[in-house]
Amino acid sequence: MAKALHHRDLRREAKQQGEPVPPIASLAIAFSAQALARLGMPTAGADPNFDRGMLQDLRTIGDPLGEDDLPSDWRFGHTDETRIDLLLVGGESSEPSLNSLFEKWCGILSSGWALVHWDFARRREDDKEFFGFNDGVSQPGIRGLRPDGTPLVNRPISSDDPRSLEFARPGQRLVWPGNFILGYQREVEGNSPGSIFEPPQSWMRNGSYLVYRRLNQNPERFREAVEGLRAYLASQGEIASHDWLSARLVGRWKDGTPVVMSPDGPNTEIGKDVFRNNNFRYAFGEQEIKVTQQDGSTRIVMATPGDPRGKLIPLMAHIRQINPRAGQSEEGAEQHPQKLMLRRGVTFGKEIEEDPEGERGLIFLAYQTSISRQFLFVQSTWANSANAPTSWGPDPIISQDGTASPKRRIRVFVPSGRPHDCPFNGRWVIPTAGEYLFLPSLTGLKELCQS
Amino acid sequence: MYIPPPRYIDFDRSSRSNALKRGWDRLIGQAIENVSDLPRVLDPLKATNNAIQDSVTWSGFPRALDSWFDVGNDPARMAAAHRAAEVVYRTVPVVVARPDRSEQLANVPFNPGQNIYLAPQRRNGVVSANDAFGLTERPQDEYLEWHTVRDPQTGAVLRIDFTSEPPEYWSFLAEQDAELAATVYSELLDEQVDTDDIIFPGDVFCPRFLVNTNEVIYLGHVRLADQRIDFPARFEAGNYNPDNTWNTKRGAVHLIQRNNTLLAEINLAANATRRFAVRPDLQAQIDRFTLTACGGFGGLNRNSDPSIGSFVNTLALDNHRVMVSNPLGLFISEVQLGGFRDPQGNSVDRDEILTTVRGDWNDEPGRARVVRFSIHPPEGAGYTLDQCTFNDHALDTGGPIARKTFIAVHGIAEPGTLQNPLPDHPIELCGADLVEHPTLRPKLFAPVNWASRLQVGVPEDSLAIDSTRAMMRVMTGGREV
Q1: Judged by CB atoms within 8 Å, which residues 88-147 of B form the interface with A?
Q2: Among residues A301, A356, B304, B367, which one has the fewest Cβ atoms lying within 10 Å of its Cβ?
Q3: Cβ neighbours of A289 in B, within 8 Å
Q4: Which of B285, B305, B404 to mutate to test the interface with A (most CBs of A within 10 A)?
């Protein structure tokens, strides 16, 4: 891990200084429970959801099921022939080198494994997903130290500020590593660590459960739905622009600017500022914070207003529904950090102009140590629910209700300043494959190979 | 007119329907009147078209038990909390007489063998241990209570009934139309319940003891209604008995935990409209527990009260008068059943295992008002619930489902306007004594004034301040007391 972090730092540094960025080359290999059983690896005591596999949880996750109880929209992963045993996630700086990597691994695995599917995923311009929003702005900060004693993640908040105990960058919640990697202390209520989450088998130490979801996106359908919402509100005498509404549905403007900091439009200065674009907690205002920048200079990060009632970021807005921060929820804010995952989503598919009929969307990859308390909770208890974390409706972007045309009733503070309940029916995120996998550490992988 | 929580599904069956409706309206109207002097309290019946509706939800499993068992991420501890949630315990108010002739009431564990029991007086004047009962509580204090129906022979779990109906409604119904109340009891439990089962046939008597330095002497039973007792029921002939066996040992028709009352909800909502020193405006960095402690308006170690309080307080600070909307009640807004697995480990359609008994999941658009539902195996299934799992917990208790059952208070709030500004909202000093914070470390703190919250590092066990903890010590013996 230390090597990977060092490499990441080098890339960041080079990017900031306008120097050639060192190439990236990475490969992760994750195994389903069935694959591990086939390989004879012991998994007794592993996460029960992982053991059962994602297909068993689809009623909870909300993907529509056909009469055969199989997901009707999945392209692969749901039949014996297309079952996902292994997931390889490769990273390269260019498409040709990625193709070489892919071919090399297909060759290595061809003796015992058949290729089910492969997606060429890439970072789109400005890290925007296909609805046009900058994605992955908010990530938890992992507590812990590198071998040299420096923090695993940058801690720029002045140590005399009590918020430095809770946050890495302003708004970036610090979370105990046992939430993501087996063998470390877990997150519990308060800032003290919980007990060590021991791996169920010794070879699983330093590993993580990887939730893979292939989410097709239909940008046109989403655009039409927002337009329909705009027209509906106009019929009620509430005039709002398309962008104004879609920012309320997500909680951010397309460039990543949180609506709570810039209610009337995007502000690139905020959207691109990693010290500001996450610095909000909904329940109350955030006072100024003194931070140390990478060059050693200090600066004051401006205060942020609170938004407890959802006047700016509605309580069901995507970023609020799946991460209520210090805001209201049926569980209580003290439980929220336990739900956080390390999300590493990346887009797949060509641009609409290049291939209007092609598939496109997001490969959702999330690392965690408890599928039921993290991914499954966030997707089913919060995103899909009309009554949790609040009663303002389900997540307008990713919620599923087990049907091909979900019915939603969402609540938005309209321009006249009143909360208004609106229909927002339809589906623009269509899950087309998925599985729960286990990503072993390098040591675990070696043990697995030897066995 | 104020409407009861299950609307008029019962009242409309009574020959005295109109009288019942008027009576309920008076009862709730009086409760609202009692708190109407607070500047940000709204009389829901006087709300205008300008008023907004909003709701707050919380999980139905007792936070106090999770805290006591320090559940964290440990499934075994969570299972212990589930079991503890179903340990019904009974206490008896006892008159303690001292040699100096002073007398006081004490609550002690129910123990008929030691004459510690309540009993109604029979027509012949006798008070007998054969009629013994105690004040019963389920330790389910999040405005959701449940009863696990077991096969009397095998103990297998046949059904789990969940309710959020307040005791005030059933006291009112039973005392206005006892036959109807018994009929509805019978229907809900699928058992034969008679009026005599739920109405005291005579005044209730409690024990009186002389307590000397070295001995305790039983002096006989005395009329309980003559004693001062803090319990939301009366104890005279003809009164409703909320501790009847059909609402305690053999079923759960309505809430019975002492804090789970409708009047408590109204008082909590009213008091949470006040502007407290620790939260003079919406920018104040304060969590729901600290606010509750400062306001002293609810139980600290609960999901419900701090959530309701924080929700109401936010609206009040944002220039609204606030109250629970009509019908005033605690409602089940959602139950998520995706975690159910049959004995083969397969998921099951929710419609096959859920029966909504009273209320409507879509009572108004976006507002569920369910007050009773049951979970059972699918019709014709050859298994019982204890053979199933729910989110990987054995379904031998209702706890795992209670965690995924959300309770809601639907609020109504009238904004102040330029034409009709709201009266002043004065800042009030914190009213609470030293309390235990559920999450912060150090655990104890004392809100002393609005300018500074004093955090005190008192060792955890140095003060016995939390009655819940004392209660839990009794309960975790794992036996009914």
Answers
A1: none
A2: A356
A3: none
A4: B285
- The pTM assigned to this predicted structure is 0.92
Cβ–Cβ below 8 Å for A194 and B347: no
Taking the CA of residue B143 and the nearest CA in chain A, the distance in Å comes to 13
More confident residue, B474 or B5: B5
Range list of β-strands (E), A197-306: 208-217, 289-292, 298-301
Structure tokens at B197: 């089962």
ipTM of this model? 0.94
Q: What do you get for the CA distance between the two ends of chain B, in Å?
A: 43
Tokens standing for B46? 């006087």
What is the three-class DSSP state of A214?
A: strand
Which of A282, A288, A227, A219 is CA-nearest to residue A430?
A219
Distance in Å, alpha carbon of B314 to nearest chain A alpha carbon: 7
Beta bridge partners of B374: B161, B355
**SS3 call for A366:** strand
Tens digit of pLDDT for each residue in B426-474?
998 876 655 666 666 545 444 433 233 333 333 333 222 333 333 333 3
Q: Please, which residues bridge with residue A212 across strands?
A: A365, A435
Contact call for A331 and B59, based on CB within 8 A: yes
Q: Contacts of residue B349 in chain A, CB cutoff 8 Å?
A: 59
Record: contact A388-B334, CB cut-off 8 A: yes
In the predicted structure, residue A192 carries a pLDDT above the cut 90? no
Backbone angles phi, psi at A67, to 5 degrees: -65, -25
Which residue in B35, B33, B1, B34 sits closest to B20, CA to CA? B1
- Torsion angle, CA of A153/A157/A160/A161, rounded to 10 degrees? -110
Strand A342-343 and strand A361-368: pairing? antiparallel
Average pLDDT for chain B: 88
Q: Which residues pair with B57 in a beta bridge?
A: B408
Q: Are residues A259 and A313 in contact, defined by beta-carbon separation less than 8 angstroms? A: yes
CA–CA separation, B100 vs A182, rounded Å? 65
Q: Which residues pair with B132 in a beta bridge?
A: none
The closest alpha carbon to B91, from B44, B140, B139, belongs to B139
Top residue of A196, A387, A407 to mutate, by most chain B CBs within 10 Å, is: A387
Q: What is the pLDDT of residues B170-195, one digit of tens each?
A: 999 999 999 999 999 999 999 999 99
Which residues between 38 and 77 in chain B have a beta carbon less than 8 angstroms from any beta carbon of chain A?
A: 52, 54-59, 63, 72-74
What's the distance, CA A181 to chain centroid?
Answer: 16
Rounded to the nearest angstrom, the minimum Cα separation between B470 and chain A is 22
